[in-house]
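[09:14] KT: can someone run the structure on this one? pasting the chain below
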Amino acid sequence: MIGAKPSPRALRSYAAIVGLWALVVSAGPALAQPCCGPITPDGRRLAAFLNSTGVDHLWIAGHHIAWDTGEEDAGRPDGREEKTHCSAFAAAVAARLGVYVLRPPDHEQELLANAQMSWLAMSGSGQGWRTLPGYLEAQQAANRGELVLEAFENPDSHRSGHVAVVRPSDKTLAELDRDGPQETQAGGFNALSTTTAKGFRSHRGAWIPDEGGSLGYYAHAIDWSAVR
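[09:31] RB: done, structure tokens below
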């Protein structure tokens, strides 16, 4: 009826809708801001360092490589260690930054990513590594200029896992929740800069939007004064 007074129930429903809309509108600017703090001077050093690794043309899948340089080992053109080289790249990055993570000759290149994940979880703290709660903290640590590895241990011990280096990024919280941290990697494809969602897409359950999946995140401080 025209001019009829709304019922209390209708008024409560209307108030709930208005309140929800206000919450969405107020959250919008926050979601559009960088998620993980400013990229510090050390963060910019880390980004420049990762850009200089040459991973876009070294550590190429399908070639037997020297783990520390990523260059093809012409004397060993094939063999079990010729498939992908994510873990060798991560180990080489760490070594160049003066940080130890499990690497050859302490472990062969084959299935090294799985072994690195186990080592980080069980022995990494003794070498200065700390376990991070999740992907938000991983991106924050990289933005501060720390070495951060994100790693997936394959539940099948006979199949390869995957590991990548988190790189500084000013992505928004919405982008972080959807795509995960920004990272640099070797693997099925090599990239100076890609998302976790793309980098780990061939490993089911590794990355899940909003929840983060089964990835582990580990950070280590870098003494930039000692890095050449």
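[09:33] KT: thanks! The beta strands are 130-131, 147-152, 162-166, 182-185, 191-195, 216-220.
[09:34] RB: yep, looked fine to me
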